[in-house]
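Lab manual, section 2.4: Encoding a predicted structure.

Procedure: take the sequence of the chain (111 residues), apply the prediction step described in section 2.3, and record the output as C-alpha cells. A sample record is shown.
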Amino acid sequence: MKMKVSAAALLLLYLTACANLGLVTPQSFSERLATGYTSVSTVRSTATALLAAKRISVGDATNVQASADNARAGLDIARDIHATEPAAADARLTSVITALTALSTYLEARK
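Recorded output:
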C-alpha cells in the first residue's frame, strides 16, 4: 500500500540524512525549535497514515496524537522562556526532541 509523503516528512528525512552523512544539522536554538515543530507535524501525519493503513490501532494513534500535543506544548514553553531562561529553554527543547525521536522510531517500526 502506498502512502503519501508530506513535506514535513521529507524535511525530517533530509535532516536525518544530513546528520548521518556528517553534514550541517540544526545547531541554534531557533533551528532546533523549527525542527521540533516539523517533527510534531511529521509524527501526526505518520500516525494518521498508519492508522488509515491499519498498521496501528486507534488506541495507539490516540496515544501518539496526545504525545504530539504534549510535545507541541513543550516546544511552545521552550520558545516562550528562551529569552529569559535560555538554559532551561534549551533543556526543555532537548527533552522534547528526544521524546519526538522516540515517537518517530516507534512509528517507523510500524511501517
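Check your result against the sample. The CA atoms of residues 73 and 96 lie 9 Å apart.
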